[in-house]
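We examine the record.

___
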Amino acid sequence: MMGSCFIENIGRLLIENKFNVNLNPFGILYNPQSISQALRILINKKKFTEKDVFEYKGMHHSFWHHGAFSDVDKDKCLANINTEIVRSEEYLRKADILFITFGTAYVFYSKEQDMVVGNCHKLPSSCFDRYRLNVEDILNDWKQLIEELREVNPMLQIIFTVSPIRHLKDGTHENQLSKSTLLLAIDQIIHLYEGLHYFPSYEIVLDELRDYRFYNEDMIHPNQVAIKYIWERFSETYFTPEAHPVIDEWRKLYQALNHRPINSDSDEYKLFLRQTLLKLKAFNDKYPYICCSNEISDLENRS
C-alpha cells in the first residue's frame, strides 16, 4: 500500500485485522510521480548511498522519502532506507495486490536535483518549481510503470483510489482541479490492462458523507466515523464472505490484547491474560495462515 496519508488509515486497519500488508515503504507520498519513482526504485533494487541524501538544519534527508526516514545520523538514515527497500522489493514481487492512493496532482520540482521530490523537508520554496501534472503526464508515466510492474509480478492486481483529504493550501478551486486531474487520469489508466481497479473513496466521502460532522476539527481530514464508514464499504467490496467471520473473531481477541487494567499485577488480570492466551492459541491453530507469533510471545511474557 503506497500513497497519501489516507492510505495510512486503511492500511493500519488492515494490519490490525491481521492482513499481510506492507504500508508506505517510503513514508507518505502524495503525488503520482513520486509514487511511481518509489516503485521504480523497488523494481530496480536501488541502493542508496551518501550522494542520495542531503543535510539540512542538522538532519539528513532523502528527496524520495517522507521525513519519517530522516535522521541526525547519516549512516542510520541510509541504513533505514536501504533495509526497507530490500524488504519491500521482495514484498512487491510476491504481492497479490498493490493499493495506490493519489493525494494531489501538484508536484514540487527541485531545481538543483532536477527531479520531482516526494517531500520538500521544509527547504525554502525558492529551491523548487511547483506545478500541476496533467492527465497525459500521469497516464504516460503509469502506463510504462504498470508494464514494468507486470514484468516482476505478472499476476499483480492494482487498485487505485483518490484521497478524500482536501489540500486547501492549494486553494479550494485548485484542489478541485487537482482531484479532477487525478480522477481523469485513473479512469484512463484502469482501462489500459486487465487487473486494474478503482475504489471510490473520494466519492464516498464527498457524496455519501457530505456533512462536516464526518471531518476532524481542521475540516480537512475525515474523522474516525468517516474512516469506519469507508472501511465498511472497502470490506464489503473486497473481502470474501469467508473473511468476515474470521475478522469478527479476531477483533474480539484484538480488543482483549489491547485491554489495559488499572492494576496489571492483580490475580484477576493475570487470569484474564492466561485465558486470552488460550483463546489466541486456539485461533492460531484454527487459522494457521494468520501469523500470531508476536501476540502469543507478548502474552506469554506478560502472564
